Structure formats: C-alpha cells, structure tokens
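Fold this sequence, please.
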Amino acid sequence: MSWPRARRHRLVAEDGRRSEPVDRVVVLTGLRPDLSFLSEVRIGLDERLQAPTALAPLIDPN
C-alpha cells in the first residue's frame, strides 16, 4: 500500500521568521499532562512550563 505524499508546511512567526518545511504540526495549546510520576526519576522540570529545565529557555525565552 502506498501513502500519498503529505504536503509540507512552514511555520511563520509574528515577526516574519519562517521555519524549515515540516511534515506535521502538533498543537498542544492548554495541554497539562500529569507529570508527577517524573519526580521519581529525578527529571528537573521548569515549574511554569512543565518542560525539562534545559529546554525551557528555548520554548519560552521570557
């Protein structure tokens, strides 16, 4: 079975910057999963973003 080739997309920021072409965009606005189990494996999470502390500045530099 062959799948049709997906259209490529570019994300455009408010200031006009454009991303490289991507196959998919996953939007998780408002999603707040239960990450409490991660405390058992000692992963450091940013309290506000609930993202790994090393990635938090890349997600929201403010």
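The helical segments are 56-59. The chain has a mean pLDDT of 82.
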